[in-house]
Amino acid sequence: MPAPTTTTKDAPEPGADAAESTPRARRRRRRVTDENGRRMPMWELLLRYALLLVVLAVMIGPFLWQLSTSLKGPHENIFSSPPSFLPSDPTLHNYERVADTIPVWDYALNSLKVAAANVFTNCVGAALAGYALARLRYRGRKAATLVFILAMLVPVEGIIIAQFTTMRDLDLNNTLIGVLLPGCISALNVLLMRNAFLNLPYEVEEAAFVDGANVWQRFFRIALPAVKGTLAVVAIFAFMGAWDDFLWPLIVLSDPDKFTLTIGLNYLHGTFANDERLVAAGTVIAVLPLIVLFACLQRYFFRGVGEGAVKG
Amino acid sequence: MKSTAAASASATAGPPGPPVKARPSGTPKAAAPQGRRIRRQLVTSPWLFAAPGLAIVGIFILYPFVSTVINSFTDKRQLIEGKYVGLANFRELLHDDMFWIGLRNSTLYVLVVVPALVVLPLLLALLVQKQIPGITFFRSAFYTPVVASIVVVGLIWVWMLDERGLVNAVLEAVGAGKVGFLSDQWLLLFSAMGVTVWKGLGYYMIIYLAALANVPRELHEAAAVDGAGPVRRFISVTVPAVRSTMVLVAALSSVAAFKVFSEVYLMAGPAGGPAGEDTTLVMLVQRTGTGLTGRVGYASAISVVIFVVTVALMLLVLRADRKEDK
Amino acid sequence: MRVYQSSRISRSSRISRSSRSPRRAVTAAALAAALLGLSACGGGDDSGSADASGKVEGEITFQTWNLKANFKSYFEGLVDDFEKKYPDAKVKWVDQPGEGYADKISADAAGGTLPDVVNVSPDLVAPLAKAGLALDLDKSAGKYEKEYLPGAWKSHQVPGMEGTYAFPWYLNTGPLFYNKRLFKDAGLDANKPPKTYDELFTDAEALAKKSKGDVATLANVPTIEDFGRYGVPLMNKEGTGFTFNGAKGVELLTKYKELYDAKALDGQALTATPESTGKKFLTEAVAMNPGSALDLEKFKKDAPRLYENIGITPQISNTGKDNMYVMGVMVNTRTKRTPAAVAFAHFVTDAQRQMSFAKKVAIFPSTKGSLDDPYFTKADGTDETRVRIAAAKSLKTAVNYTPVLFSEQMKVELRNAVARALQGKQSPEEALDNAVKACDRLLKQS
């Protein structure tokens, strides 16, 4: 067994720091810069930074280019060759035009409601189900796991109308709840939580059990805090999923007052198909909240991936 | 395709989310014998715990899918009820050129994207593994494409690769001349693959990073003492140590790549590039099955084929994984 | 902006390929299901009455297709006027975005939540009529037929079915723009643009030869409308099979293949979108492009040099009849408020309302006599008016060439067949034969 438990016995957040600062990693970090003559050679350090910068340009460049395009005024040539990376006369004009055309803020608020609810339901629902799959012994556990795995493999393209009919039968079409429901506990997130719980050592819970804690107490007080990182992963996926979704809200919602941002931004296509600046502004509006959210959660996030399924 | 939040992560060709390793044999071994006592006591709460998840997934994913499977044996249309036609849809598939084009492209996607996503993120992980100053920034920055929505990513790259976009402007500035990334059948498909890899890099990098943290340092030191250079150590120490992670990444990325939709749809257009030559299987489902004249029965048959192939890919992983254990 | 752009054209663009569309082959606007559709028709199969003669009362929902962004006040005013005229009726207006319109409608149709009054195009009406969801206006509102241009009224009839399934709404057509400088450079008479396809092919070859392949004349592959304008019979009389693989069709495609090989048809035509061809025309890489009066503004602003040399000419046609697009307004058979729904659908499309809508944007009314209004006949010296007058004139004889039964899937079949022929993978004959076979199969299944 590749040791899931080596670092976890003594750590309150088992495995959480695997990627960055397990004792081992910390030791390694000291080695990079320490004075025992084992310092990383200067040329290697420079080479590393050079490579890092190249990769950085490839990964971030396209976003910056989009941002730059969205800030260029109507009279600046966006097709120039060689390209100019900085807007000569930065303006928020394009964003104003987007806001003039569609009620961006109302739509963003709807999106935010759905996304926030989606984060909540996914975190709670997936944690509960994941815990059951990982920790609790009961008949049908394997079958339940299989249900989630199969659900993950279903190609959704083919089932959207069936989903809509179901929603209509429940009288939930044209509501934000209808938008939320199909994805509110996703199979992927359940399996993610299952794996995180699987990687927790039993010993801690065992001690609580001996102390008379019941299953809910153990779940809330011991197991859940130990998988904070994975919860952050789930939260980000849930937020992304809800924030980015287009086709499903479009099908379910009829009432423009309830539209989410992705549907709203779509009004831009027909209307301003030829203006790259506006399309760029629209994409920036769509993507910025995600980047901000990620920046806030990234510490937990990297931990989460560390404690997630990879080990074990 | 991000049709529903539930499906979003699993159905795009990008990273499918932190991998889920089904490992039936793992837990009991680690958990025994103390764990058994905990478990014995629990009879009702497990179902209570799992119920919401099972209900949602059952009602909104599996039930519609079951009706899809049933539909695949009918000639149902979008607005017209179908009747049972046996295997006619599947027989028709065999003679449908577009189906074979889709199968070719989806398979090609797996063959190109998967090796890239197995190897490149590992190299990237090695690059950001060392704790040098500023490394956290680089790690987060490399992860940004994963966070951005595929629709936005598609728009960004369509604009980048446009005949008058940034890439061609740069190519022209250095005198290389314009390249029609978005008009040639193969360039289109490979551009889309490039975008998939670009979006997936950061994601798998993190997974490898976590796996690398578990590689015992002693192995590297022993190899270094034996006089092995960095390349040699990579091949003889690192690769074997993260092999099970590589298998996992290969499996998950192949399932996702086989179901690719958004990247190709956004870049090649709904018709799938010139003469539809860039159509993938999921695009074909979308094209034949939706709209007012959609052939639900036929599209369902394609969905079933996709499902069977992805299950097969998944089983392949589990087998490789089990072998690894022995 | 333009109804033209946002609804009909961006829709046809999606058939081909729209780099800007995150989703779905089909496009545009609106659903409203909303209160009535949802609660009253909640049961799904209880259908309303086809009798439109009762009292105009109750709440109905009206759905448009990507019109809110630019015409909000127009529609709000229209709803107010209607409610003033019929105090017992209430109209809830909803608008849907451009993307995914057909998916939205089909989900609502399948789920029983289709709004009472829906903005449609002929190809959307056909499947809805077949499914029994579109009210036959010949029966329920036949008395209004005489108010509309005969061609427009007929455009929402479905071959193989009795009846007319939507009120004709606005019409659209546009001229062809051409670049006089490029024509002159090629030694052609810039004041004699091509009128027929033969002239077009000759000029295109000359342009390509003179510029050594740098200047293409056309940026789009031939669509079903081109086949129609070329004089190819598209469908048999009974509406049971397609015929565009006949000698004339093969001739047209063979000609396009020659143009493609000579670079007179742009090399990227196979993946072109209206946006991309627009850009090519703007940058003077392509000599001709279809457009509307509104494009002139854009030329003036973004490409002054092009604007100086802009030529405007009617669509290329061998039949003497231009192509037009038709929008319609249909009534849901399941509506509980048939009299109100029919009255409102007629209200939206009557001469007065269409005229005032036409004055807001470059579209044309489908009501009898409206095109004789001075607005469409009197020149005022501006290019915009000139374009409008020419278009209005051509509309009197224009035809909606796209067969009502030609679905999105069939458009893809044709487009792919054309591409295969242009690439030389199949002969034009073989490609068209295959396309017809595929379309016939789809037709039988629709």
TrEMBL record, chain A:
<comment type="similarity">
    <text>Belongs to the binding-protein-dependent transport system permease family.</text>
</comment>
<feature type="transmembrane region" description="Helical">
    <location>
        <begin position="278"/>
        <end position="297"/>
    </location>
</feature>
<dbReference type="InterPro" id="IPR035906">
    <property type="entry name" value="MetI-like_sf"/>
</dbReference>
<feature type="transmembrane region" description="Helical">
    <location>
        <begin position="146"/>
        <end position="166"/>
    </location>
</feature>
<dbReference type="Pfam" id="PF00528">
    <property type="entry name" value="BPD_transp_1"/>
</dbReference>
<keyword id="KW-1003">Cell membrane</keyword>
<feature type="transmembrane region" description="Helical">
    <location>
        <begin position="222"/>
        <end position="243"/>
    </location>
</feature>
<keyword id="KW-0813">Transport</keyword>
<feature type="region of interest" description="Disordered">
    <location>
        <begin position="1"/>
        <end position="33"/>
    </location>
</feature>
<keyword id="KW-0472">Membrane</keyword>
<feature type="transmembrane region" description="Helical">
    <location>
        <begin position="46"/>
        <end position="65"/>
    </location>
</feature>
<feature type="domain" description="ABC transmembrane type-1">
    <location>
        <begin position="108"/>
        <end position="297"/>
    </location>
</feature>
<protein>
    <submittedName>
        <fullName>ABC transporter permease</fullName>
    </submittedName>
</protein>
<feature type="transmembrane region" description="Helical">
    <location>
        <begin position="172"/>
        <end position="192"/>
    </location>
</feature>
<keyword id="KW-0812">Transmembrane</keyword>
Automatic annotation (TrEMBL), chain B:
<feature type="transmembrane region" description="Helical">
    <location>
        <begin position="46"/>
        <end position="66"/>
    </location>
</feature>
<feature type="transmembrane region" description="Helical">
    <location>
        <begin position="296"/>
        <end position="318"/>
    </location>
</feature>
<keyword id="KW-1003">Cell membrane</keyword>
<keyword id="KW-0812">Transmembrane</keyword>
<feature type="transmembrane region" description="Helical">
    <location>
        <begin position="186"/>
        <end position="213"/>
    </location>
</feature>
<feature type="transmembrane region" description="Helical">
    <location>
        <begin position="140"/>
        <end position="160"/>
    </location>
</feature>
<dbReference type="Pfam" id="PF00528">
    <property type="entry name" value="BPD_transp_1"/>
</dbReference>
<feature type="region of interest" description="Disordered">
    <location>
        <begin position="1"/>
        <end position="35"/>
    </location>
</feature>
<feature type="compositionally biased region" description="Low complexity">
    <location>
        <begin position="1"/>
        <end position="14"/>
    </location>
</feature>
<feature type="transmembrane region" description="Helical">
    <location>
        <begin position="234"/>
        <end position="258"/>
    </location>
</feature>
<keyword id="KW-0813">Transport</keyword>
<keyword id="KW-0472">Membrane</keyword>
<protein>
    <submittedName>
        <fullName>ABC transporter permease</fullName>
    </submittedName>
</protein>
<keyword id="KW-1133">Transmembrane helix</keyword>
<dbReference type="InterPro" id="IPR051393">
    <property type="entry name" value="ABC_transporter_permease"/>
</dbReference>
TrEMBL record, chain C:
<dbReference type="InterPro" id="IPR006059">
    <property type="entry name" value="SBP"/>
</dbReference>
<keyword id="KW-0449">Lipoprotein</keyword>
<dbReference type="Pfam" id="PF01547">
    <property type="entry name" value="SBP_bac_1"/>
</dbReference>
<keyword id="KW-0732">Signal</keyword>
<feature type="compositionally biased region" description="Low complexity">
    <location>
        <begin position="1"/>
        <end position="19"/>
    </location>
</feature>
<keyword id="KW-1003">Cell membrane</keyword>
<dbReference type="InterPro" id="IPR050490">
    <property type="entry name" value="Bact_solute-bd_prot1"/>
</dbReference>
<feature type="region of interest" description="Disordered">
    <location>
        <begin position="1"/>
        <end position="21"/>
    </location>
</feature>
<keyword id="KW-0472">Membrane</keyword>
<keyword id="KW-0564">Palmitate</keyword>
<protein>
    <submittedName>
        <fullName>Solute-binding protein</fullName>
    </submittedName>
</protein>
